[in-house]
């Protein structure tokens, strides 16, 4: 869920700050750490024959949500880097629409 993306983002940000990176680089590092690896989870569940169990579906679903949140955060941070400030509501809407359109095509 949300904490699966936010905690690595915050930890990555402060760790990068500790090592002397600037605000933008630290934020980017934090966002990069917020993404999970669905492929590894999926492969593990398939190998163990646990993908179609309640636990397997729950963990995989949470991983998908974490990755979607991570991708949104990455798009948000890139937008901030390109514009030099917070994105407008229109830009945020464009990001969300693009993500929804991409998901619909899959």
Topology of helices and strands:
Elements: H1 2-18, H2 23-34, H3 38-48, H4 54-83, H5 89-105
Written overview of the protein:
The two termini are 22 Å apart. The mean pLDDT is 83. The radius of gyration is 16 Å and the shape is flat. The longest helix is centred in the middle third of the chain and has 30 residues, at 54-83. It is mainly α. Helices cover 82% and strands 0% of the residues. Helix 2 runs antiparallel to helix 4 (54-83) and helix 4 (54-83) packs across helix 5 (89-105).
- Which bin fits the share of residues in helices? over 70%
Shape field? flat
Largest sheet: none
Low-confidence sequence ranges = none
How many β-strand runs? 0
In terms of DSSP E residues, the strand content is under 5%
Mean pLDDT: 83
Brief description of this entry?
By secondary structure, the protein is an all-alpha fold. It is built from 5 helices and no strands.
Structural features:
single chain, 106 residues, mainly alpha, 5 helices, 82% helix, flat
């Amino acid at each position: 869920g949300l904490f699966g993306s936010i905690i690595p983002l915050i930890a990555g940000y402060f760790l990068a700050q500790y090592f002397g990176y600037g605000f933008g680089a630290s934020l980017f590092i934090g966002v990069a750490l917020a993404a999970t690896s669905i492929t590894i989870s999926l492969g593990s569940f398939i190998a163990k024959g646990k993908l179609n169990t309640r636990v397997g579906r729950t963990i995989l679903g949470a991983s998908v949500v974490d990755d979607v949140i991570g991708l949104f955060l990455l798009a948000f941070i890139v937008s901030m880097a390109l514009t030099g400030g917070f994105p407008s509501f229109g830009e945020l809407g464009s990001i969300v629409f693009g993500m929804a359109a991409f998901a619909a095509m899959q």
